[in-house]
Amino acid sequence: MSDHLPSSRRLKNVTTNSLQFAIVSPTDLPTLVQALQEAHLPDDDVALPGRVFFAFQFDGQHIGYAGLEIYGPDALLRSVLIVPQQRKRGLGSQVVSEVEKLAHRAGIERLHLLTTDQAPFFERIGYVLTQRQLAPADIASTLQFKSLCPSSASYLWKSL
Asked: Is the dihedral of CA 58, 117, 67, 126 positive or negative?
């Protein structure tokens, strides 16, 4: 993990306008796992090294999660999840924007993701739909690509 990413020791809460976020601590992983399971998103590898997940709030209300899995200049954007009662308010794009800023400050040049049903959303915010076989080797070798996401999942990427 890069020194430019916030750590749970150095960061309790970061605020940008009305959006706040903090790193999901090991003790909060069960809550993240439950949310991922309820959203039918992969959760088998969230506790493995090299992953960092963020919990987001907007105006004091919990709105969801997102994460990064870093591989040099590339990272996998993970588990972007807005809780059902907070959807359709533009919060998903704000969450992704904040994660992109964190990634850029950490020296990440490109974000990659897999999605079964949100490709149009990610395309609207600048991600490019691409054939899976064109993913960089480090990204293609992740558990997300190899086994956790179905082969029918769309692959998208964005240069930061």
From this structure: negative
Helix (H, G, I), strand (E, B) or coil at 131: coil
pLDDT at 59: 87
Walking along the chain (160 residues) 10 residues at a time, the average pLDDT comes out as: 41 61 93 94 91 93 94 96 92 95 95 96 98 96 92 96
CATH number at residue 45: 3.40.630.30
Which residue segment(s) compose the domain that 19 sits in?
14-159
Total number of domains constituting the chain: 1
57: part of which helix (H) or strand (E)?
Answer: strand 51-58
Is residue 126 in some structural domain? yes
Quote the tokens at residue 39.
Answer: 């959203």
Residue 1 domain-assigned (yes or no)? no
> Rounded to whole angstroms, how far apart are CA atoms 91 and 63?
8
Asked if residue 5 is part of any domain, the answer here is no
The pTM is what? 0.86
| Structure confidence at residue 16 (pLDDT) | 55
Structure tokens at 154: 């769309």
Token representation of residue 73: 């200049």
